[in-house]
Amino acid sequence: MESTDDILSSLIVELKRGTLILSVLSQLFSPEYGYSLVQKLEEKNNPIDAGTLYPLLRRLEKQHLLVSNWDTSEARPRKFYVISEEGKRVFQCLKEEWRTLSDKLENLLEEERNHGDN
Predict the structure, then answer these.
(1) 16-73 pLDDT per residue, tens
(2) How far is CA 109 from the centre of its chain?
(3) pLDDT at 112
(4) Burial environment of residue 61 by CB neighbours within 10 A (0 to 12, 13 to 18, 19 or more)
(5) Do 45 and 59 contact (CB within 8 A), yes or no?
(6) Helix/strand/coil for 13
(7) Quick one: pLDDT at residue 114?
(8) Which residues have C-beta within 8 Å of that of residue 52, sequence separation ≥ 6?
(9) Is the separation of the CB atoms in 22 and 95 below 8 Å?
(10) Which of 34, 70, 75, 77 has the smallest number of CB atoms closer than 10 Å to its CB?
(11) What mean pLDDT do residues 87-96 have?
């Protein structure tokens, strides 16, 4: 039997997983390579595991939401990703959907708060 802490940890992971794409797309209006994106998100208190990020970047590129280019000007070549025009359209739609969902959820949570006061 799972402990409450295990269940809570699993549920938090699920909540965060639903916001990953929006978080990543929001940071790729300027080119970033994987590790710089990990650092950027961490600095903004939205950490992402490299093992999660790299497959996500590849998937978003395959879906034509990102484009990539190799920078070979330094000793260590790096693959830079940037949001595509299609990705910008998808990002705007996701952002609107997120705000709608967030407002609806906030209303539900407010309703619960009001019941808690009674």
Answers:
(1) 888 999 999 999 999 999 999 999 999 999 999 999 999 999 999 999 999 999 999 9
(2) 23
(3) 83
(4) middle
(5) no
(6) helix
(7) 84
(8) 20
(9) yes
(10) 75
(11) 97
Answer whether 28's CB lies under 8 Å from 37's CB. Answer: yes
| Phi/psi of residue 19, nearest 5 degrees | -105, -5
Helical segments of the chain, H only: 4-17, 20-26, 34-43, 50-62, 85-117
75-83: long-range contacts at Cβ-Cβ below 8 A with a sequence spacing of 24 or more? 78/33, 79/33, 79/34, 80/31, 80/32, 80/33, 81/28, 81/31, 81/32, 81/33, 81/34, 81/37, 81/57, 82/28, 82/29, 82/30, 82/31, 82/32, 83/25, 83/28, 83/29
Question: Rounded to whole angstroms, what are the CA distances from 58 to 53, 63, 71?
Answer: 9, 9, 17
* Global pTM value: 0.86
